[in-house]
Amino acid sequence: MENHESSSDKPALSQWIESLIEIVLSYYANLISHPFKSGLVYFLGGLLHALFVGWILFPVALYSKQVQPIHFNHAIHADPEITEGGTELERCLACHGFREDGSFAGIPKLETCVECHDDPESPLGEHPEEERFLKEYVAKEKEIPWLVYSKQPDCVYFSHIAHVNMGKLECRTCHGDHGKSELLPRYEKNRLTGISRNIWGKNIAGLKFNTWDRMKMDDCAECHTKKGHEENNACFVCHK
After folding, report:
1. Burial level of 198, CB count in 10 A (0-12/13-18/19+)?
2. In the chain, where are the structural domains located?
3. What is the pTM of this model?
4. Rg of the chain over all Cα atoms, to the nearest angstrom
5. Kindly report the CA angle at 154 between 150 and 155, in degrees rounded to 5?
6. Which one, of 84, 104, 99, lies nearest residue 174 by Cα?
7. Average pLDDT, the chain
């Protein structure tokens, strides 16, 4: 008796699905055949305008683009012949090193630059930016007001020593191949938060194509989980 009832339900279910498909197809056919009457044209028009404003105009208004104080060529400074060989990491750490207490020194101060560029009257190269650097900063003993691409909000604590020395991560994992760049990109600052656009990422849709193209919390948590350190995803590990 039970088998008879279940078999008789199958045609009814199939007929119900076919009716549903016909209704859906009829609805979309009506949208396409009568675009103004159905409102399809108005919907698409509103959608395209919203995407243009949200994805094109809003980012232009939200971010201010600024150039760095001077031109800096990473490729020249990371050249093994100039930095006396060593591994790629060692060449990075020649300028971006760690203090004795293990904290990261960040962007090098002028005292690091003058270890090589010590004479304002004797440029090491022929680029006019070096001459300007020597006259405006070295000769006047004035620090360069660099704009920091990867500066996190004040509520975020990040330890480079934990990731570089303990986690054995390469610099390029988070920062990309800056050692090969010949020109610094424009700095884009959020007018509302004051934070660099490099933190949120430049892909307005939120998609991630590279590990280093943004520095969002989700990316940190994903890496911790992948490397078996889920305990570091606790809130107060990074938010002090």
Report:
1. buried
2. 2-65, 67-107+146-238
3. 0.71
4. 28
5. 110
6. 104
7. 83
